[in-house]
Specification:
Blueprint (H helix, E strand, L loop, with lengths): L1 H15 L4 H16 L5 H10 L6 H14 L2 H13 L5 H17 L2 H18 L4 H11 L2 H4 L4 H10 L3 H7 L1 H22 L12 H26 L5 H19 L5 H34 L2 H12 L3 H18 L2 H18 L4 H15 L7 H10 L3 H24 L2 H10 L1
Helix pairs in contact: 1-2, 2-15, 3-15, 4-14, 4-15, 5-6, 5-13, 6-7, 6-8, 6-12, 7-8, 7-20, 8-20, 8-21, 10-18, 10-19, 11-19, 11-22, 12-21, 13-14, 15-18, 16-18, 17-19, 18-19, 19-21
Membrane topology: Multi-pass membrane protein
Protein name: TRAP transporter, DctM subunit
Keywords: Cell inner membrane, Cell membrane, Membrane, Transmembrane, Transmembrane helix
């Protein structure tokens, strides 16, 4: 446990000094190796070993899908369909924002991409309909958490690789919790909109089946994509990595040939951006695998299991304690390094207590997703601030009701694990 404490001390010092996370991880690993008196070539061997995974190919595939679908104007088509479905309800544009995030999360696999794409469309519209800018940014940031849970999910891919958990089962396990989060956010939006008299124009609208069918026809192929992914995985036709390749191909066909929004120049730019983003994720994964190796051979997971076993008597108590740890971690460390560092440590502990690593992966993703909208790190908050053009303090205040709702959903999953495991159990 001393080794873990020392590593975290190094990491937090460098992170708060403003050192980029990949360099913070590398320097912390070097210092830990020197302190443990291990050979420095561990960094090279374990870094290469950590990223020598076929499943890791899914990361650039799904990053490419999100970028090309966004460039292809897919976000606007999904927003139009969501508007036709729920735009007439009190708080209409807030509901549209959440529902569009659920749709877009099913193709982008990224909370940040969701915030930028959906926020860029929805926030100006919401402000025009009497929603405050901070509320518009707050619900956009909060609903982006859905993109982490609903398949496909890059965090689930990274978790699956580092813990040896089935990525396909993780994808399927996130479906029902993702829908629950969406419904909970829409209910909260309805209450707050009614109280603050947001979006009065939506109350004068009526449900129009013709508009629904027309917008559905336009958005049909983007909506079909996540269903193809989930059905293919559930039926065993392809793995999560193969699903990424298929989704990339279909996303390219839709954006370049069906909607004709992406040309050769645009495609080249998207490929370059995908390479840059993927490189960051993979380098972090390489350094985090070194960390996981050092902590494992130092006996940290075993020591942690012994400590918890001596102090925690029930499964619920263990999960509640772990949730507190992860919520705190998510507030001070970005999602990708948090998963890559803590998943290899915590997953063996969960196994020892008979807790499914598929279930824990969804719980961990939900926790760290909440961290994306929690200061001081709150990556999604900064994106939403930029899109909504509001001060951080005001935006954070507007997200508080949604934070409580997200935590309530999280606690529901803790007490009722069957919600997460229902669909994955059908695959076994």
């Amino acid at each position: 446990m001393t080794v873990l404490g020392l590593f975290l001390l190094f990491l937090f010092i460098f992170t708060f000094m403003g050192v980029p996370i990949v360099f913070s991880l590398t320097i912390s690993n070097i210092l830990l190796i020197i302190w443990l008196d291990f050979p420095l070539d561990i960094i090279a061997t374990e870094a290469i070993s950590g990223i020598n995974e076929f499943s890791l190919l899914a990361v650039p595939f799904f990053i490419f899908v999100g970028k090309i679908m966004n460039a292809g104007g897919i976000a606007q088509k999904l927003v139009d369909f969501a508007d036709a479905l729920v735009g007439f309800i009190t708080g209409g544009l807030g509901h549209v924002n959440v529902l569009a995030s659920m749709f877009f999360g099913g193709v982008s696999a990224s909370a940040i991409a969701d915030t930028a794409a959906i926020g860029g469309i929805m926030i100006p519209q919401m402000v025009r309909e009497n929603y405050s800018p901070e509320y518009s940014g707050g619900i956009t940031a909060s609903s982006a958490v859905i993109g982490i849970i609903i398949p496909p999910s890059i965090p689930f891919i990274l978790y699956g690789i580092t813990t040896g958990t089935s990525i396909s089962q993780l994808f399927v396990g996130g479906i029902i919790p993702g829908i629950m989060v969406g419904f909970a956010l829409m209910t909260t939006n309805y209450i707050l909109s009614k109280k603050n008299r947001f979006g009065k124009a939506s109350e004068q609208r009526k449900f129009n089946i013709k508009k629904v069918l027309k917008s559905f026809k336009i958005a049909f192929f983007p909506l079909l994509l996540p269903f193809v992914i989930v059905f293919g995985i559930l039926s065993g036709i392809f793995t999560a990595t193969e699903a990424g390749a298929i989704a990339s191909f279909l996303g390219f066909i839709l954006s370049a040939f069906v909607y004709r929004e992406v040309g050769i120049r645009g495609l080249i730019d998207i490929i370059i951006e995908t390479g840059e983003t993927s490189a960051v994720v993979i380098i972090i994964a390489a350094m985090a695998s070194v960390t996981a190796y050092l902590l494992t051979i130092s006996g940290v997971p075993h020591s942690m299991a012994e400590f918890i076993g001596g102090n925690v008597e029930t499964r619920i108590a263990l999960l509640l304690m772990t949730n507190i740890l992860l919520l705190f971690t998510g507030a001070i460390l970005d999602l990708t390094p948090a998963i890559l560092i803590f998943a290899p440590i915590l997953a063996p502990v969960m196994r020892e207590f008979g807790i499914s690593t598929v279930y824990f992966g969804v719980i961990m993703g939900m926790n760290l997703g909440i961290g994306l909208i929690t200061p001081p790190v709150g990556t999604v908050l900064y994106v939403a601030c930029g899109v909504a053009d509001v001060e951080m303090e005001k935006l954070v205040k507007s997200t508080i009701p949604f934070l409580f709702v997200l935590i309530a959903v999280l606690l529901t999953l803790v007490f009722f694990p069957q919600i997460v495991m229902f669909l994955p159990s059908m695959m076994q």
